[in-house]
Design goal:
The protein has helices at residues 13-18, 21-35, 41-62, 81-96, 117-120, 145-162, 175-191, 193-198, 201-209, 217-236, 242-251, 259-263, 277-300, 304-323, 330-346, 362-376, 403-412, 420-428, 431-447, 449-461, 475-483, 495-505, 546-550; strands at 266-268, 272-275, 396-401, 471-474, 512-517, 526-533, 537-545, 562-563. With 570 residues, the protein is α+β, with helices and mostly antiparallel strands. The chain has a 6-stranded antiparallel sheet with strand order 4-3-5-6-7-8. It is globular, with a radius of gyration of 24 Å.
C-alpha cells in the first residue's frame, strides 16, 4: 500500500466499463479480496491519531477531578470510580459530536469527514422522530430552534459533568448531573432518534444509568451491562452471514500486506470467492469468545483465571482496532478494553453478593430484553439496540436516483456534504476517474450476503424504467449525507426518510426508487424486502432465502425471489 496515494486496482478498466453489473462485481470482488479498498496508509495513521486524541481527552477530563494529579502518573488514578464515570460521559460527548463511529473516509465521508454537529446546529436539516404520531410535541421532520437548543444543552451538560470538581474520594459524580444528561438525551431521542443513536445510548447511556445508584451497586450493574453487550453481539453472530464479514474485514485490514495472506480468507481464489474455512474459524471462534470469556470475568472474582480471561478479551478488542474496520468503531473498542481493566480486573472482587439494592439489575435486564426483541423483530428494533454489531445481518437499502430526481434531492435538502458519488468525483477529478472506487463499494456489499440479494432485487426495482439512467447509492451513505450520521442502522434510510424526502422534494414517479432489505430474524431462514417508489409508495414486497444468499458467489444475480401475496409480480 502507498502511504499518501491509494493502491491502483489491478483490473482491466476497459473490461469493467464494458461489462454489466455481474461482470463488474466479479472483477471488483476479486480485486477487493486481493487488496481491499487500497486505502493509503496515511488514512490509517489518521485514525490511530484520533484514537490517541480520544485517550488524551479522557485523561485531561479525569485530571479536572480534585485528587487526580499527574498526566503520566496514571497508575494512581485510572481505576477510580469517578474516573470511570467521566470516561463514559466523555465517550458520549465524543460520539455525539461525530468524532467516533462513522467518521472519515472509511465511512465514505470525505468533504467534510463528519456531519453531526454541522447538521444538528442548523435549522431546516432533517430530523427523524421515532413515534411522531404517538408522542406529543415530536411531530415534524425539520430541525427547529427547540432541537438546536436541546442539542446544545446536551453538550453543555456533558461538559459540566466532565469538569465536575467532585473529589476523587467521593467515589461518584453527583447523580443529579448525570440525570440531566440522561434526561436531555431521552428528550432529544423522542424528537430525533439520529442523535440518540449517534450518542451510542445503547452502550454509554445504559452504563450511565447505573451512575444514578450508589457504589458498589453501580459497578456491579455496569458489569452486567457489559455482559449484555458481549452476549448480544455473540447472539447476533449465530448466523451464516458472519464469516463473510470476517472475510471482508480481513481483506481490507492494513495488517495483511500481501495478496497471498489476504487470499487465505477466501475459499479458492479467484474461482470461489465465498469465505474460507479460516474465515469461518475466526468468525465462530470470536463468537465463542464473546459468549464464554465474559461469563468467566463475571464469575471468577479475581486471580489468575480473571487475568487470563481479561487478557483474551483485551486481545479480542485490540484485534478489531488494528484491522481498522469499515464504519470505524475504534474508540468503542478502546473503551471496552478500559472497561475490562476497570470493572473486571481492578474491581474483580465486586459481584452479586455485594449488591445493596438488587433491583439495580433491572438496568441490564432492559438491555437484555432489547437484544432478545432485536433478534426476533429486527424490522422493529434498530441494529444498535439489538446489539447486532458487525454480524453481517443488517437492515440495508439501495437508492436509485434518476438525473432529475438527484437534482430535486440536491435542491430540496439542507446538507453540509454532497451526495457520496459526487464527493468521489470531486476527489478523483471526474465521473470516469471515480468509477472504480464507487463500484468497489458495491463489491464490498456483494462480498457480504445481503449484497447478493440486492443484485437479484435491483432489476425488479427498475423493471418498468428500462430507458432511465439511474445512479445507484448505498442507503447508509445517503443517510449519512442527509441526516448527518449513520452507523449501520438501516431504519434511518427506509420508509420514513423516503416519505420525508417526498414531502420536501416532490419526486415524480420513477425519480427515486428504493430497495429495502430487512435483517434476518433469528428464528427464520428468510429476509423480507420491499420495493418503494417515493412518489407512489410501496409496489412490491416479498422474501429471499438466506441459504440462497450464502451459497452464491458475490457476482451472482440469479437468486430466486418469493413475491408476497396480493402483490403484482413483475
Amino acid at each position: 500500500m502507498g502511504f499518501l496515494r491509494p493502491v491502483e486496482p489491478d483490473i482491466d478498466v476497459d473490461e469493467l466499463r464494458r461489462g454489466g453489473r455481474s461482470t463488474q462485481m466479479r472483477i471488483l470482488s476479486e480485486n477487493y479480496l486481493s487488496q481491499g479498498f487500497g486505502t493509503p496508509d496515511v488514512v490509517y495513521v489518521g485514525y490511530l491519531m484520533k484514537i490517541a486524541l480520544f485517550i488524551l481527552g479522557a485523561a485531561l477530563f479525569a485530571l479536572t477531578t480534585p485528587g487526580v494529579d499527574g498526566l503520566f502518573d496514571v497508575s494512581q488514578w485510572w481505576a477510580l470510580p469517578v474516573v470511570w464515570q467521566k470516561v463514559v460521559l466523555w465517550c458520549i460527548l465524543f460520539e455525539v459530536t461525530g468524532l467516533g463511529c462513522g467518521f472519515g473516509p472509511l465511512n465514505l465521508r470525505f468533504l467534510p469527514p463528519l456531519g453531526s454537529f454541522l447538521y444538528w446546529f442548523r435549522r431546516g436539516t432533517i430530523r427523524m422522530p421515532p413515534w411522531p404520531r404517538r408522542v406529543p410535541l415530536t411531530s415534524g421532520d425539520r430541525r427547529g430552534v427547540v432541537d438546536i437548543v436541546l442539542y446544545a444543552a446536551l453538550l453543555v451538560s456533558l461538559l459540566v459533568a466532565l469538569v465536575s470538581a467532585t473529589a476523587a474520594g467521593t467515589v461518584q459524580l453527583p447523580w443529579q448531573k448525570v440525570a440531566v444528561v440522561l434526561g436531555l438525551l431521552a428528550v432529544i431521542g423522542l424528537r430525533d432518534r439520529t442523535i440518540f443513536l449517534a450518542a451510542r445510548a445503547e452502550v454509554y447511556g445504559a452504563i450511565a444509568v447505573t451512575f444514578l445508584v450508589p457504589f458498589p451497586d453501580s459497578i456491579v450493574a455496569a458489569k452486567f451491562v457489559l455482559l449484555c453487550i458481549w452476549w448480544g453481539a455473540a447472539v447476533s453472530k449465530l448466523n451464516v452471514h458472519f464469516p463473510s464479514v470476517v472475510q471482508a474485514m480481513e481483506a481490507n485490514s492494513p495488517l495483511w500486506r500481501t495478496k497471498r495472506i489476504k487470499h487465505l480468507f477466501t475459499r479458492s481464489y479467484p474461482d470461489d470467492l465465498r469465505p474460507s474455512g479460516l474465515s469461518k474459524l475466526l468468525a465462530h471462534g470470536g463468537t465463542a469468545i464473546e459468549f464464554g470469556v465474559p461469563l468467566v470475568l463475571i464469575l471468577s472474582g479475581g486471580g489468575t483465571v480473571t487475568t487470563v480471561a481479561a487478557t483474551v478479551m483485551i486481545l479480542f478488542h485490540l484485534h478489531i482496532i488494528v484491522t481498522i474496520p469499515m464504519g470505524t468503531p475504534l474508540e468503542w473498542n478502546v473503551f471496552m478494553i478500559f472497561a475490562v481493566l476497570t470493572l473486571f480486573v481492578d474491581k474483580a472482587s465486586l459481584g452479586l453478593g455485594d449488591l445493596v439494592h438488587p433491583a439495580v439489575l433491572l438496568i441490564p435486564a432492559v438491555s437484555f430484553l432489547l437484544v432478545v426483541l432485536g433478534n426476533l423483530f429486527p424490522e422493529r428494533i434498530c441494529f444498535l439496540f439489538g446489539m447486532r454489531y458487525y454480524a453481517g445481518n443488517w437492515d440495508t437499502s439501495v437508492w436509485c436516483l434518476s438525473p432529475s430526481g438527484e437534482q430535486k434531492l440536491t435542491d430540496g435538502t439542507i446538507r453540509f456534504a454532497m451526495l457520496p458519488h459526487r464527493q468521489l468525483e470531486k476527489i478523483y477529478g471526474g465521473v470516469e476517474e471515480a468509477r472504480v472506487t464507487r463500484l468497489t463499494g458495491f463489491a464490498f456489499r456483494a462480498i457480504h450476503t445481503h449484497g447478493r440479494a440486492h443484485a437479484a432485487l435491483l432489476p425488479r426495482l427498475l423493471a418498468d424504467q428500462p430507458t432511465t439512467e439511474y445512479v445507484e447509492l448505498d442507503g447508509e451513505t445517503v443517510a449519512g449525507v442527509l441526516l448527518g450520521w449513520n452507523f449501520g442502522d438501516g431504519h434511518l434510510h427506509s420508509e420514513q426518510l423516503v416519505e420525508t424526502l417526498q414531502g420536501l422534494c416532490a419526486f415524480e414517479p420513477g425519480e427515486l426508487r428504493v430497495l429495502v432489505l430487512d435483517a434476518q430474524p433469528i428464528h427464520k431462514q428468510t429476509q423480507a424486502y420491499r420495493l418503494l417508489d417515493a412518489a407512489t409508495g410501496e409496489f412490491e414486497r416479498g422474501t429471499v432465502r438466506v441459504a440462497d444468499m450464502v451459497n452464491r458467489q458475490p457476482w451472482a444475480d440469479d437468486m430466486p425471489v418469493t413475491v408476497g401475496r396480493g402483490v403484482r409480480a413483475r
